[in-house]
Amino acid sequence: MKSEPDRKNPFKFGSIVEEPYFTNRIEEIRKVNSILNSPNHLIIISPRRYGKTSLIIKVIKKTKRPFIFLDLQLITTSQDFASQLLKRVYRVYPLQKIRDLIKNFRITPSITLNPTTNKIDVSYKTLTLSSEHTAVEDVLNLIESLGASKAKPVVILDEFQEIKRIGKNTDRILRSIMQHHQNINYVFLGSQESLIRDIFEKKKSPFYHFGHLFPLDKIPYNEFFSYLSNSFKKITDDHNDLSIKLLEKTKCHPYYTQQIAFTVWELVSANRLIENPVQKAIEQIIQYHDIDYERLWNTLNRTDMKLLIGMSLSDSSPLSEEFSRLHSVGAASTVFSTLKRLIQNGFISKSTSGYQIDDPFFKQWIRARRSN
Ligand SMILES: Nc1ncnc2c1ncn2[C@@H]1O[C@H](COP(=O)(O)OP(=O)(O)OP(=O)(O)O)[C@@H](O)[C@H]1O
Ligand SMILES: [Mg+2]
Description:
alpha/beta, Rossmann fold, Arc Repressor Mutant, subunit A, 3 domains, 9 strands, 52% helix, binds adenosine-5'-triphosphate, binds magnesium ion
């Protein structure tokens, strides 16, 4: 069947979303804007896939300010940090301007034009620890100087909790450089809440109270409901009921909601009379991820497994006596430390309504496997 233009699947998951896939966040946008228009720095934290990156990119693109975005997940050392950051500076500022300022660098990088990508590559010869830190300082100070003449740049460091892995004392060095900068707004994003909180809220941490800490929540029910329902209206009269059922399963988790919605759209477009499309979509997604889930499951220890099985079968709090009795998870202190670890590893999230298995499909997968 030929697809009509307005019948294009309106849902998207997995990467940064912009219009028309981006919904709501009006209050969050206002708040982020107001911080970026002040001399302050910003820290956005949330569990995985709540929309941190999408939010910050949306706000920054609108301001038209120059921004440098670096995801620390794939950065290996401080030296790598310096070269990857500098590479991104080249994408934003005119060559001539950078060339003039780079003359002041104490550690000289080698700059080459990659003929296949037509992009600048930056590398350093292997550096000693202290030269690595000097290289980082040179690059950050370069951005500060570039910011003095033009619109104030924003430097976004995504998955910032990774800084601890990148190098001993790298956090200390970064902080000592950044605190002198007047022409940059720094934005730190992080998805491992406890690690990020340690970095910015522990008194002995170099980044203690360095910026405004902004916890990002899920998308509010009413707004997500209208977004889904308005989209499904194009293909079914059952759009309200469908959206209610869908949100009941995902509890408004931005990524998982878009993922089920995407699959439901495919199923309903292919067969308007399909029964229970939300359930069918979930089954399809679980089947698709079966191998990943199995691999994930096998990384868990026995207490983790017991707790997750219990949480997939019952809605009572894992810290309650009833839960402990039904699922033999042991003493409350064991449950508590297990929960903490599972939160850190992204399996469980904690919200005002209590502890939840973060991925609703993983939850269903556990249930399905248990009842097999
Ligand atoms: N405002 C939004 N409206 C609708 N869907 C959204 C919105 N923000 C995020 N999403 C959904 O969540 C997914 C993840 O978004 P994004 O990558 O921005 O989150 P993140 O918090 O940066 O994730 P990660 O922890 O993986 O870095 C998107 O692909 C999209 O499906
Ligand atoms: Mg992200």
